[in-house]
Amino acid sequence: MDQKINSLNEKLLETGFNRLITIQESSLEIESSEQKYLRDLFDFDNFILLGDPGMGKTYSFKHAAEYEGAIYQTVGKFRGARGRGCKGKTLYLDGLDEYRSRSDNEELIYKLADIIDDIGPKSIRISCRSADWLGAADASKFKDIFNGNYAIATLQPLTVEQQSKLISDEGIADNSSFFENAEKHGLDNLLGNPQTLKMIASVVKGGKWPESKIELFEQSCEKLLAEHDPNRTRKGTGEFISNELIDTAGAICACILISNTHSISLLGQPENPLIPSYREISFCDKEKLLSTLTRRAFTSIDISNESLTYVHRTIAEYLAARWISKIINDDGLPINRLINMLGYNGTPSSELRGLHAWIAVLINDDLAHLLIESDPLGVILYSDPSALSPSNKITLIKAIEKLSTEDPYFRSQNWSNRNLGAFSSADLAQEFIDILLNPESTHHLKGLVLDALRYGKPILTISDQLIEFLNSDFSSVEEKIDAVYVLSLMGDEQREYLANNYYPKISVDNRKDHRLKIALVKSLYPCYLCAEDISNVVRDIACTDKDIFRGEIGELDKIILKDDFAKVIEQTIAKLSENKDNISDDAAYEVREFLNSTIILALENNLFSNCEQIWKWLHYLYRFPKYGGRLLENKSIINW
Predict the structure, then answer these.
(1) Contact criterion met (CB below 8 Å) for 516 and 488
(2) How far apart are the first and last CA of the chain?
């Protein structure tokens, strides 16, 4: 049995099921502080997996379906076939966001739910872009048809270890240099996205680092459209170079995305009437169409109909937007006709938000405001707002402000922050400050600005105003925490202020102050705060008579330097022993879990002096108030 489990674990790791997830909602009781992985979703009869573009939803679904012996289909294909052959099977339905109607999303979702209900599958797994998942409204439609328990989870960015492995797999030997250069060029916050990371790795093999997301996509598309077989470059369709094909690639992608077909056939007359032939794209050269469809930017999905589709949706959105912008800028395609084509009543349909966002960035400045104002959040999340002109950056921030007034909770369905760094710009410094120092600004709007500042290049000119915001009475604790992270990234002067002036005055009168103090420790240790500051925070939380958040101190063990592990454990035990009568029942579990994980890490990495020290630690842990006596339940300690 153990051998079978080990074999299973190895297979799960090999196929990428060790990706971190966050479970947003579940019909089963789950410990909120416990770290969850993609493989844990196999414990559920049904699940919905959310994630940003390029995060690996399709990759994960294809491998998971193969592992479970299940059926993998896109949502569109499943609905078109009305679920034929799926009765009683486990189904992986990929791309709910690509399926939604441009005029009546709700009606088509109900139709999809009806098909699922009619065929009675054993289990259902559905993927969707985070920004296009409509929260409780979508969840309620599927809960009623789920056969058994369910979970709704979000795929998290790659860990540093996973990034390193992927970089190595892409042929880059010097990982340290890669990460340093990514940080230097302001691209480090994009590395958690597998598709973007692979594109960066592919581009920088030539030695030149892209300065922006647009430059990254441009260079990646050039590589994807290049013919790499020297035997094919001398004749026929292989003679075309990538620059000759990029417009054709954009036209193909635009046709697939806007017409909602799933592929283009290389046959003159495909057997399936729902798959158009490449010859139907009448506005492109036929030889270039054939050549483009055989390059790496496209992939085969139906051998019998010789049909192909784009290799990844985010690449397709950029290519399509590039081509559409060109025919607007150069050929005079009416902008209002385009807007009507992409959505309803001026608002882009959810499955075309990425395309719409890229067009807003790539078209002429005097037209961009029409698209920016109709979906400003989409422009930030899906494209590269750093490429906008200064005037259109102002347009974007004003549109976001208007959105926050109309919908104060506009980020409630998508708190993604990985692309927000591109929104941060010195051109917007005054607008950012006006928002932060305005007590009437919504929490979601201030959070978006703070996330942009945190993940973008530092704007040092607003340091004093950020400190004013940090000390204001109207900023919430969550906003203060974000401001701490922003200031800590600005430089030594700001970090010294936080350590010497701000940190000492933070009380421990309530649980929110605890969270703020933890954020300061995580930002300032080890250069400005020391091991004792970590143990002091743990003691303060242990002795609080206020409710605390589960998982509140769970990540502190991950920041401790190897040389400080023994100090932190020793000092924490000493401080808790001095205050043993004051340890609250509410905090006891959290504190014990912190000690537990810290001691395990110390044992596994030989970060102790002698056996006497180990015995002292384990003895204290065993006798810990309320949650002591469970030492022998800990498999990690037993294995050690």
Answers:
(1) no
(2) 22
The residue type at 336:
N
What is the rounded distance in angstroms from the CA atom of residue 103 to the CA atom of residue 106?
9
Q: Is 193 exposed, middle or buried (0-12, 13-18, 19+ CB in 10 A)?
A: buried
Collapsing DSSP states into helix, strand and coil, what is residue 15?
A: coil
Q: CB atoms < 10 A from the CB of 585, how many?
A: 10
User: Token pair for residue 469?
Assistant: 């915001």
Print burial letters for 157-192: b (CB count within 10 Å at least 16), e (below 16).
Answer: bbeeebbbebbeebebeeeeebbeebeebbbbbbbb
Strands 264-265 and 307-310: antiparallel
Please report how the helices 105-119 and 135-143 are oriented relative to each other, as an axis angle in degrees rounded to 10.
Answer: 20
- Global pTM value: 0.74
Dihedral angle computed from the Cα positions of residues 566, 571, 573 and 577, in that order, rounded to the nearest 10 degrees: 160
**Helix then strand then coil, % of the chain, to nearest 5:** 60, 10, 35
| Beta strand residue intervals within 75-212, DSSP E | 90-94, 123-129, 150-155
Render pLDDT for 143-186 as a digit per residue (tens, 0 to 9).
Answer: 888 878 999 998 888 999 899 999 998 888 888 889 988 876 76
- Antiparallel, parallel or unpaired: β 71-74 and 90-94: parallel
* Both tokens assigned to 34: 């416990």
**Is 156 in contact with 19 (CB distance < 8 Å)?**
yes
Where b means 16+ CB within 10 Å and e means fewer, 332-341 reads eeebeebbee
Q: Quickly tell me which residue has 């109207």 as its tokens.
A: 474
Helix (H, G, I), strand (E, B) or coil at 604: helix
Q: Which two tokens stand for residue 585?
A: 């029942």
% residues pLDDT > 70 (the chain): 88
How high is the pLDDT of residue 12?
A: 46
Tell me the sheet residues that pair with 302: 307
- 3-state SS, residue 331: coil
- Residues in contact with 163: Cβ distance below 8 Å, sequence separation at least 6, in sequence order: 179, 191, 192, 197
User: Per residue in 420-477, pLDDT tens?
Assistant: 888 999 999 999 999 999 999 999 999 999 999 998 888 999 999 999 999 999 999 9
Pairing of strands 71-74, 123-129: unpaired
Residue pointed to by tokens 């992270």? 485
Q: What are the C-alpha distances in Å from 505 to residues 467, 471, 489, 498, 552?
A: 14, 11, 21, 10, 20
Q: Which two tokens stand for residue 529?
A: 């705060």
Using omega within 30 degrees of 0 as the cis cutoff, is the peptide bond preceding 526 cis?
Answer: yes
